[in-house]
Write a structure and sequence with these properties.
Elements: E1 2-3, E2 13-15, E3 30-33, E4 44-48, E5 51-52, E6 76-77, E7 81-82, E8 92-95, E9 110-115, E10 119-120, E11 125-134, E12 151-158, E13 195-202, E14 224-228, H1 235-241, H2 252-265, E15 267-270, E16 276-277, E17 283-284, E18 288-293, E19 299-305, H3 306-310, E20 335-341, E21 346-353, E22 359-366, H4 368-371, E23 377-385, E24 392-401, H5 406-409, E25 412-414, E26 418-421, E27 424-431, E28 436-446, E29 452-454, E30 460-461, H6 462-467, E31 469-471, E32 476-478, E33 488-492, E34 497-500, H7 508-513, H8 519-527, E35 557-559, E36 570-572, E37 577-579, H9 584-592, E38 599-604, E39 608-613, E40 616-617, E41 624-625, E42 633-638, H10 640-643, E43 671-677, E44 680-688, E45 709-714, H11 726-729, E46 730-735, H12 747-752, E47 762-765, E48 771-776, E49 787-793, E50 800-806, E51 822-824, E52 834-838, E53 843-848, E54 865-866, E55 878-882, E56 892-898, E57 902-903, E58 912-913, E59 919-924, H13 929-934, E60 955-957, E61 959-967, E62 970-976, E63 1000-1004, E64 1007-1010, E65 1013-1016, E66 1024-1026, E67 1029-1033, ...
Parallel strand pairs: 33-42, 60-63
Antiparallel strand pairs: 1-28, 2-26, 3-24, 4-9, 5-8, 6-7, 8-24, 9-23, 10-23, 11-20, 11-24, 12-13, 12-23, 13-14, 14-19, 15-18, 16-17, 20-21, 21-22, 25-27, 26-27, 27-28, 28-29, 28-30, 31-32, 33-34, 35-38, 36-37, 38-39, 39-42, 40-41, 43-44, 44-45, 45-46, 47-48, 48-49, 49-50, 51-52, 52-53, 53-54, ...
Length: 1179
């Protein structure tokens, strides 16, 4: 196969971030049980109150309805507050609850299920399950919390302890949670025979209490997740294994006491009736402890306090709904666990709450030294118990898999942003568990017929370069790039200058924030990639799978040879001033940088913006030099805002802590662009942090206040990327407490209006003669207003001046803001005339920046359009000059976009999406009379019209058909109506003015209901305008019900519409023979036989490439289908090229990337009458 010709691919396309739901990594053996239906086919053996709440007594687990164990009791909880549950909405119940404080309806219950089918341990085991505890009698624990009691345990046991085909009975009731032995229970204190490890979900707190069970533990720990190890302390086992100490003649009462003493001490007891010499040759009196230790279900690690690790207000608890009349499962806190035991005996445990980020309860540690070798096969079991206190204890799902494959690919989520340039594409990934990432470069190639594909073997993986060792992406090995060999820069917040990211260079405040003279010095080295202080090497910092952090919402941004459209002599056509830097000056800049190192920049949640080298071209700019195409890091930047947030008091957000769950740091896509000042051309890279920079974790609401931050780097010459040059490479960093605006903006308004910057800024030439960085004020600012920042760079000195153009539109109930700003060059002189932006409350704004005096740039008093019911706009607007097919007059200026919004995953909640119908819009900016009066570039205008257009003034298009298909990577086809737009002032719909009153179009997207969950299809990725087509990927949020064990991943359609009408194009944009082969047209109305959408589940902004044969392909990364026993759908907020989404898996969740799924789709562009006038590079 031959590579694509560079001349057809020299433009830079940055495909935006993926929205991914966690998908399973299928190992050799997978066992799963949803537990929500009428029966279970898995071979469980049940005891006590174990039953299915929607069961019908046809499987291995009995139905709760009619179960004799609960005779005379009300079975509370479930879907409606009382059982039974509807089929498909049930759970495995282990104990009953109560509706009264201190009631007895659910007291003294025990229930257990134990598998009878051995599961091999030779490849390790990964177990995922979800639990709820709710609806109890409010019995008080040792912290005086009305927690109910006691808890749930999941355990793994040695299958050789089966008696025939039946597993042994569970362990002691009460605080032992049916697993460990007890120190004083009657009539039995037996533990589980053959227990190897157990996870206790302990609302009351006694599972870790040696006063209640076993000899180890710190005492009571209410609301904790506690692990215990191996043991086989039962009366029968002690008598058969140690008859010397426990003779068969022992009475039942004495045997019970002997078991209790053995349990309480962890040593064998002499109950022989006489003094005896033990194995250590010690003389042991009757009824005394020997010196022979026995496996006693020892505590593993430290109990993990749910309240401390989640750090929410009010505190997150395992239990809830105590003593309420109708406790509901849907209101319970859902805990999902992932327990991994590798074949060499290393154990780790993570959990998530309500679909939130995975939280580490037990970091990777060896358990064979304390537990003995792994048994050949495991049995699985769940138990729960109540005493004087009660709770409903239920299991929602269970899954077990071998993890031989998971070692290389488990937890890998395709982040899906990619950049195409030359013959390489760049894919970013993240691993939800333990938070690490990858960035790969793969060849984009075409065969002799021009068919495009992506090489499945990467040229390099940046994580492998930084980490070293075997690299699965390339099939080779790497020597780790040394921490001291990296050029890592930062910003000193006191000196206000760029610095090396070294502890000694930090301000006093920053040194304190990062940990002080000893801890902070080690932590700085840890962040730079040093691993000597990780737990595995005897240190206190968490062990990392890889040095590169997870890349969730930042798209890779490629920078190579300068390629902006400034090669011809320029004149500002409004001011008639020449633009001296255009033409020869820029051509010289290009020539001088023809061999400039290609670098891929990407933000990661290790606290850094990274730059990785990706080859270079020769002096002609045509021959690729692959010698430096190796992914070596050439630059990294740690924003000062990250230093303030990477080591907070909450260990779940502390990046170096073994209890680290996840936080966002550098999570937005940076912008790059050429600009001129100080007598020379420069290339800058500018970006925000998206959800990053908040020490208290990501914000997923519209009421809290975030810390905003923006940084700028001069990346003109990669040869200058040294720590010694930090002061010149780092141009500045501005945050919401320190940003200062010029005198025409109040400083208090300026800094307090900056929120989390999700959108990718733009770099543009302005009519005042300066260049500017332009960006939206972002999410969750203190003022809650919507506005844009214009940071001009002085033409002579390079000094920056900031203005904030405030719309004043905000709400008392939800903060407003702007993510993306689009620039419009209406006369083609490469100077920005208007700026367009949409806000989170559905307003579309036009900012007039045609004046040569920047002090006159102000926000308009009213928006030009408002969406229905305030549908949020979180992506970029496309600005299209559309020449009507029925008119030879001036082109209409159509602003086309879509609505939708997503909120990031937190410790206690999954990623969520805005609800309600979302819509695609095309709005005519009719008010062009003033522009037409001063420019020869004319646009269609009318003398008067509505100041703010409403949806009632729009034509309506509809989705006519959605046809499912299994044609390759295409899941379905869509057709769209072709209704005319009766433009105001036109004769499209007749000669009467009353028949032509419309100002644009709308196309509503459908909603999908699965079970009790309704998801609204929406726009979270930036649309693009190409070949006169409005092209956008829609997102149908993944169905990842917290109360379900299955996850339907995010999907969506790639829509190709007419920007003039929003309806079907005259002919399909998608190549008919290949892309539409699975579609059989059935419609008879206009547009019904024209495919306007393909079910590709595309992520990010669509990108088009042209082969040497002239064929055009749609190239984008796509979601695969699958399900997961744990995980939550989770793109972060935003869209398009800034990083609209990623998904975050809950504990154990993940996605296996397979680039073969990203098959390019051929398209058939026609000369449709529209052009894009925003002139920004597509991202």
């Amino acid at each position: 196969m031959k590579k694509l010709n560079k001349k057809y691919t020299s433009a830079i396309w940055a495909l935006a971030i993926a929205v991914l739901s966690p998908l399973p990594v299928y190992a050799q053996l997978v066992v799963s049980d949803t537990l929500n239906g009428t029966s279970s086919t898995y071979p469980w053996v049940t005891t006590g109150g174990a039953c299915l709440t929607a069961g019908n007594n046809t499987g291995t687990i009995p139905a709760c309805n009619g179960l004799a164990y609960y005779s005379g009791k009300t079975q509370v909880g479930g879907v409606s507050g009382v059982l039974p549950d509807p089929v498909g909405q049930g759970a495995l119940r282990l104990s009953n609850g109560d509706t009264k404080i201190n009631g007895s309806n659910g007291n003294n219950n025990t229930g257990a299920v134990i598998s009878s089918s051995p599961f091999p341990t030779s490849e390790g085991v990964q177990v995922t399950f979800s639990t709820v505890s709710y609806g109890g009698n409010g019995y008080s624990n040792s912290n005086n919390q009305a927690s109910g009691a006691d808890g749930i345990a999941f355990f793994l046991m040695d299958s050789s302890k089966m008696v025939g085909t039946a597993p042994p009975p569970p362990g002691a009731f009460g605080g032992s949670l049916g697993y460990s032995c007890a120190n004083s229970k009657s009539p039995s204190s037996d533990g589980l025979n053959g227990g190897y490890v157990a996870v206790g979900i302990d609302e009351f707190g006694n599972f870790s209490n040696p006063g209640d069970n076993t000899a180890t533990g710190p005492g009571t720990n209410p609301g904790a997740i506690t692990m215990r190890g191996a043991g086989s302390i039962t009366g029968a086992v002690l008598k058969s294994t140690y008859p010397k100490y426990y003779p068969s003649s022992l009475s039942a009462a004495n045997l019970l006491t002997a078991v209790q003493k053995t349990c309480a001490t962890g040593f064998l007891q002499n109950w022989s009736g006489s003094t005896i010499v033990d194995a250590n040759k010690k003389s042991i009196a009757n009824k005394q402890s020997t010196t022979e230790a026995v496996y006693d279900y020892s505590l593993i690690g430290t109990p993990a306090s749910v309240a401390a690790l989640t750090a929410t207000t009010p505190a997150t608890t395992i239990y809830n709904q105590e003593g309420v009349a109708a406790p509901l499962r849907s209101k319970a806190n859902v805990f999902t666990y992932a327990l991994n035991i590798t074949q060499d005996g290393y154990l780790s445990l993570t959990f998530s709450v309500n679909g939130g980020s995975p939280i580490t309860a037990i970091p990777k540690q060896s358990i064979t030294a304390t537990n003995g070798p792994l048994p050949a096969n495991f049995l699985f079991g769940f138990t729960a118990g109540t005493g004087g206190g009660s709770n409903v204890h239920e299991i929602l799902c269970f899954k077990a898999a071998q993890i031989n494959q998971a070692g290389t690919s488990a937890g890998t989520n395709v982040q899906s942003s990619q950049v195409q340039v030359g013959s390489q594409v760049y894919f970013a990934y993240y691993h939800a568990v333990n938070s690490w990432g990858s960035l790969t470069a793969s060849n984009l190639v075409a065969n002799s017929a021009g068919v495009v594909s992506i090489n499945s073997t990467a040229n390099w993986d940046a994580n492998c370069v930084l980490t070293g060792g075997a690299c699965s992406a390339t099939g080779g090995t790497n020597t780790a790039q040394a921490p001291t060999a990296r050029s890592i820069l930062s910003w000193n917040d006191t000196a206000a200058t760029g610095i090396p990211f070294e502890y000694a260079s930090l301000s006093t405040n920053q040194q304190s924030l990062i940990g002080g003279s000893v801890d902070g010095l080690q932590r700085t080295s840890f962040l730079r990639g040093d691993r000597s202080q990780e737990i595995a090497n005897g240190g206190a910092f968490r062990g990392r799978n890889g040095v590169l952090g997870d890349i969730m919402n930042s798209s890779p941004t490629w920078v190579g040879i300068p390629a902006s459209n400034y090669t011809y002599t320029g004149v500002d056509l409004l001011t008639q001033k020449s633009i001296a830097e255009y033409g020869a000056s820029y051509n010289t800049f290009v020539s001088n940088n023809n061999t400039r190192q290609n670098i891929v920049y990407v933000g990661a949640n290790d606290g850094m913006l990274h730059g990785f080298r990706a080859g270079a071209y020769d002096s002609t700019g045509t021959v690729f030099n692959a010698a430096t195409n190796d992914g070596q890091e050439v630059l990294a930047y740690v924003p000062a805002a990250v230093i303030s947030s990477i080591h907070p008091s909450n260990t779940s957000y502390d990046f170096s802590s073994p209890q680290y769950a996840h936080n966002f740091y550098v999570n937005a896509t940076p912008a790059t662009g050429d600009l001129y000042y100080g007598g020379a051309w420069h290339t800058w890279l500018v970006g925000g942090l998206a959800a990053g920079g908040n020490a208290t974790g990501p914000i997923n609401n519209t009421t809290s206040t975030a810390i905003g931050d923006l940084y700028a780097l001069d990346i003109t010459n990669p040869a200058n990327f040294t720590e010694a040059n930090a002061a010149t490479v780092v141009k500045g960093e501005w945050n919401s407490s320190a940003i200062i605006c010029t005198t025409d903006t109040k400083t208090s308004t300026c800094n307090s209006s900056l929120g989390s910057v999700y959108g990718t800024p733009i770099i543009r030439k302005m009519h005042d003669g300066n260049w500017a960085v332009i960006f939206g004020n972002g999410h969750n600012s203190s003022t809650g207003t919507a506005g844009i920042y214009i940071m001009t760079v002085n033409y002579s000195t390079g000094a920056t001046t900031i203005r904030f153009l405030d719309t004043g539109y905000k709400s008392t109930t939800a903060k407003n803001g702007i993510d993306y700003v689009s620039s419009a060059d209406l006369d083609g002189d490469h100077v920005t005339d208007y700026l367009y932006a949409g806000d989170f409350q559905g307003n579309v704004w036009r900012f007039d920046v045609t004046g040569s005096n920047s002090a006159n740039w102000v926000a308009p008093s009213k928006p030009i359009f408002t969406t229905a019911a305030g549908q949020p706009i979180t992506t970029r607007l496309t600005v299209n000059a559309v020449q009507s097919a029925s008119s030879n007059g001036p082109a209409r200026l159509i602003i086309a976009f879509g609505t939708g919004q997503q909120f990031p995953q937190t410790l206690t909640s999954a990623t969520t999406f805005v609800s309600g119908t979302q819509t695609l819009y095309g709005i005519w900016d009719w008010n062009m009379t003033a522009w037409n009066a001063k420019s020869s570039s004319q646009y269609d205008a009318i003398v008067s019209g509505p100041t703010t257009i409403g949806v009632s003034s729009l034509a309506t298009q509809t989705i006519l058909q959605t046809v499912n298909s299994a044609s390759g990577n295409i899941s379905g086809y869509r057709t769209v109506s072709q209704n005319p737009v009766c433009w105001s002032g036109s004769t499209v719909c007749g000669s009467a003015a009353s028949s032509n009153t419309q100002y644009g179009w709308q196309l509503s997207l459908p909603s999908t209901t699965t079970g009790s969950v309704t998801n609204s299809e929406q726009i979270i990725y930036n649309p693009v305008a190409a070949y006169g087509v409005f092209l956008v990927n829609t997102t149908i949020p993944g169905v990842n019900q917290v109360l379900s064990c299955t996850a339907q991943p995010a999907s969506g359609y790639t829509m190709a519409l007419s920007p003039e009408t929003g309806g079907a194009l005259p002919t399909s944009f998608f190549a008919t023979q290949s892309a539409n082969s699975g579609y059989n047209p059935t419609g008879t109305v206009a547009g019904a036989n024209i495919v306007s959408g393909l079910g590709l589940s595309g992520t990010g902004s669509p990108s088009l490439v042209t082969t040497t044969t002239g064929k055009v392909y749609l190239v984008q990364q796509v979601n695969s289908s699958g399900s997961s026993a744990s995980g939550s759908s989770g793109p972060s907020s935003g869209g398009g090229s800034t990083g609209g989404t990623g998904s975050s898996g809950s504990a154990g969740g993940g996605t296996d990337s397979n680039v073969s799924n990203n098959t390019p789709i051929p398209v058939d562009p026609q000369p449709f009458v529209a052009k894009r006038i925003t002139w920004q590079k597509l991202r």
